[in-house]
Amino acid sequence: MTIARIEKLDRLIEASVSAREAQTGSLLRQSLRRLKRSPMAVTGGVIVGLFVVVAVLGPFIAPYDPTAQTWGKEVFLNRNIFPGPRAENWFGLDHLGRDMFSRMIVGARQTLLVGIVATLIGFVAGAALGGVAAAAGTFGGRWGERVEAVIMRTVDVALAIPMLLLALSVAALLGPSLSTVMIAVGVAQIPIFARLLRGSMLAQAHSDYVLAAISLGVPKGRIVVSHILPNSLGPVIVQATLVLATAIIEAAALSYLGLGNPDPGSPEWGTMLADAQRFLSGAPQLAIYPAVGIIVTALGFTLLGEAMRESLDPRLRRQE
Amino acid sequence: MALLEVEDLRVAFGNSTAVDGVSFTVEEGKIVGLVGESGCGKSVTSLAVMGLLPKGRGPKRSKQPVQVAAAEPAGGVVKAAVAAPQAVPATGGRSRGGGADVSGRAVFDGTDLLTLTPSAMRRRRGKDIAMVFQDPLSSLNPVVPVGRQITEVLERHRGLKGAKANQEAANLLDRVGIPDPTRRLKEYPHQLSGGMRQRVLIAIAVACAPRLLIADEPTTALDVTIQAQILELLKDLVDHEGTALLMITHDLGVVAGMCDSVNVLYSGRVVESAPVRELFARPTHPYTIGLLGSIPKLDLPIHEPLTPIRGSIADVIRWRDGCAFAPRCDRVAEACVEGEPALVGSLHAHRCVLAEEIA
Amino acid sequence: MSTEPQDEAPQAQSPDAGPALLEVEDLKVHFPIRRGVVVERTVGAVRAVDGVGLKVPQGGTYGLVGESGCGKTTFGRAVLRLEEPTAGRVTLGGDDVTALKGEKLRKFRSRMQMVFQDPLGSLNPRHNVDMLLSEPLKVHGVGSKEERRKLAIETLDAVGLPKTVLERFPHEFSGGQRQRLGIARALMLRPDLIVCDEPVSALDVSIQAQVMNLLDELQDEFGLTYLVIAHDLAVVRHLSDRVGVMYLGKLVEEADSESIYENPQHPYTKALLSAVPQPDPEKEATRERIILKGDLPSPANPPSGCRFRTRCPWAQDICAEVEPEWRETEAGHKVACHFDL
Questions:
Q1: Is some CB atom of chain B closer than 8 A to the CB atom of C175?
Q2: Between 3.60.150.10, 1.10.3720.10, 3.40.50.970, 3.30.365.10, what CATH number should domain A45-53+101-312 receive?
Q3: CA torsion C160→C162→C166→C172, rounded to 10°?
Q4: Which ipTM value was assigned to this complex?
Q5: Residue B14, min C-alpha distance to chain C (Å)
Q6: Is A207 on the interface with C (CB under 8 A)?
Q7: What is the per-residue pLDDT across B12-52, written as a single tens digit (0 to 9) for each?
Q8: In Å, how far from its chain's centre is CA B265?
Q9: How far away is chain A from the Cα of B161, in angstroms, using its nearest Cα?
Q10: CA end-to-end distance (rounded Å), chain B
């Protein structure tokens, strides 16, 4: 049957199609749009954004040299005299007469660096373990299942050890330094990533499109790399954001326990917190600044991570 | 007088309209069908009538559905409401974040349900009007024995307690054709088959002898032989209890066997409405004709091409610009895009400007 | 087991004219039920498919119908070796599919393809149409990049999609278009056999008809042989030349499409047919319904004798004791029932 062409109808269809396209777009863009509407994501994003800017620009925007004991004469440890916030030193002075504000700003960089590197270590090693386990278990036949079992049981054991204890033992092995903290915290995150990626991959492995790939004769290796893995990474990346928050806190804890950077000259929030402990009664503010810094930053990453998780997973989306 | 009279019902999610002025009536003891394909607004219509849609950014009554679910952790029928918000994105508009803006009237026995407060609506729901959903598993609480889920409704709306409630629950299960009801009362939903679960849901729905039962695709998730059982059961309820049934389905076969009258929905509006025999004998709207031509029938020659409707529901224009079905219609003419087509006729009504030529 | 394809499959007892392209003999798929925490032991088996044999001639369509849990999907997957058969033999064009292993099996898959029920779920959300369609060619080493693209465009045209969709992703399509993509992908390697597992049940009525017509057209155009698996008797009947009715892992009746509708002989087929609602109020009013009691028994522990007896309105004592034989009641019409109903 020939169908009558009606110009006005064509115009109307075009209008409705373009109106619809404006609303959809790629899956990523839809997620981003949802993210922008979420107050949680916006709050988290602003905190994280500020933190990153400060961390990157730290030395350039700090009003003073964070290591210079410029006001050393104004601090009297034995008499509990620590000048508090004032016009020239917004956050006051620390026990050596250094500007707290500058130390906080410059310290942000170390904190961020530790967080990111530790998370990366955990992510890469954990994802590798989880990925190998899932791939072996799914396609490796009987031997693969054994490989999977060995990896996953080891991971389970590691997971049973309290994270801080695990990090502490690694740190004890390597001796105190900044890289010790990074490695220790990173290693402690490995089991989380391994389990998460494996679970996510196994779920994908049972999906129809993987069955379709098998039925098309796609080789197993290619199925894992080009089908299962890309579709499994979403939740792991979200988890990375959340782990970043934990890593920052853990790193601070290790530094606080004296396993961090032994160089007293380079400020780091965890070490600052440890230093402030001795003067807690006379100058609690010295502990409060880095503590609040750590908490707010961790909160920012957590909010962002949770919001991302919600926006990526339509099942978790809430009605408002 | 009609038991339920829906007039010019409109439901919008943000700026996308799911239901665009739907009117129909349900008489006592009759089965009325709302037929259409996914996205036509049939489920949203029923949820709106039941007051189960998340409220939009109207001045008051925000966050209502979540509260409904939280305030009534009991009551099977109401619990089914928990599933409703999930049903909305699937069937309704794509706009998220906001709820639904509902307008129009849904007069049930003299009261406009849309004006009731949430608590007044809650008292009616389950008692006067009950609903059966498509997916019986997600409509039942997985961690509560089915017996308890039934007695909760009995307690709430009929004040029955203890052994009396249990006895009545067993009677209900027996009535919906579940063998060995006393044993079944203690079982959990996952221990029952799909057909059994749907029977339990129906038992919960009819527990308080509602005057109107709304069944939203009640058999879509079930096998044909089980579907036949459930349809028989629903029909039996209508015949013996005089319950009115609003049947929401995509299956014209189910409609032909069950309904007294039918409303065919397309893109949020009724495009044709008629008594069932009349509709199947003389379908008037090209969409209805297309639907009928799309169905493979058991008595047609095999391999003979069906006559489907071209395109998909995504090929649509706004009703105010013309006929929303025009982009898919084989008979489309200039007249179809000259403004809004009206619903013409009373007994057999249709919304097609070319109806005269087609007939 | 021999890894070489059998050169000549026995086709002696085929009543149908013409050689069968697909031949399935006594196929069984049992899933072991394992118990135990430390040491797993097998305590039984779910007999999803328990001895099903059928033949599909070149260019023909065999429709397998049954309700959920009857094993029809497992059967389809076992035919394609997506599920490991416990016993039985599948031959495609004389080659023993059940004997293939590893790389040989992977290569052989280009000759048999599948169309899935859920068009969205069976398409990788991160691959655009170009990637979806060219991947099967790539992994079988067919053609250069340009040739693959050309073939993709040709195939898209055959399923009624414009070449402009090549850069788009599955979520940007409607349900019907996605199923067209799924079909196009299955066609890319120009297979002999396509197993369609519920090809239209996830689609709206008006779209179902489009896809069913498309399947019919493609069969003629590409000389395809179909095994159509569905729960909807009307859909199966419309697409198929021959229909098999499956119940609890076994065939209960098999006949030509016309004959199964006009002269159903197994009580289960009769019940199924009588349960399908017809879009015609006159017929609905007079339709004789056979309402089956109860639900499907567990395939882990099927009833003795005839598997259908627990729900059969005509069941007698003999049905519990003796398993009915698979007998031919008239030319080309087979049924597994003790009685001539």
A1: yes
A2: 1.10.3720.10
A3: -80
A4: 0.87
A5: 21
A6: yes
A7: 988 788 999 999 999 999 999 999 988 899 999 999 999 88
A8: 12
A9: 35
A10: 32
